[in-house]
Design brief:
Elements: H1 2-20, E1 52-60, E2 68-74, E3 80-87, E4 92-99, E5 104-109, E6 112-117, E7 122-126
Parallel strand pairs: 1-7
Antiparallel strand pairs: 1-4, 2-3, 2-5, 5-6
């Protein structure tokens, strides 16, 4: 009786293994073809290989504003990417690196919070 159970379990295992090892076929009608070697794999021209983006941040000064405070640039989760003691009446430009998926940042300066849109690797900050 025990031998029959072992034989039955072996037959089931072999048949499941045969089904599981079936070769995956690709639908060639959609233009998909199997690559014969790794070098045959091509990425689309629009694919971004970099996981980081360099964003040029421009700060537009406010004339006759004597405030001095800490300027912070953060993402939605609160990760700080840039921090600087900044005079409100002094312009500056900086290049910061942010993760490639980020399209929106936030600026905080002296209690002011403003969203910053990242477009084409550039962001402009203004307290106005």
């Amino acid at each position: 009786m025990k031998t029959n159970k072992i034989i039955l379990a072996t037959i089931i295992s072999i048949s499941l293994t045969g089904i599981a090892c079936k070769k995956h076929t690709i639908n060639k009608e959609n233009g998909n073809t199997a690559a014969a070697k790794f070098s045959d794999i091509k990425a689309p021209q629009t694919f971004k290989w970099s996981t980081l983006n360099t964003v040029t941040v421009n700060y537009a000064p406010i004339a006759n504003d004597a405030r001095i405070s800490t300027l912070r640039i953060l993402d939605a989760e609160g990760h700080i990417y840039f921090q600087k003691l900044q005079k409100a009446n002094q312009a500056f430009e900086a290049a910061i690196e942010v993760p490639g998926h980020i399209q929106q940042l936030e600026m905080r300066y002296a209690g002011v919070k403003k969203p910053i849109a990242v477009t084409n690797g550039k962001a402009t900050i203004s307290l106005k």
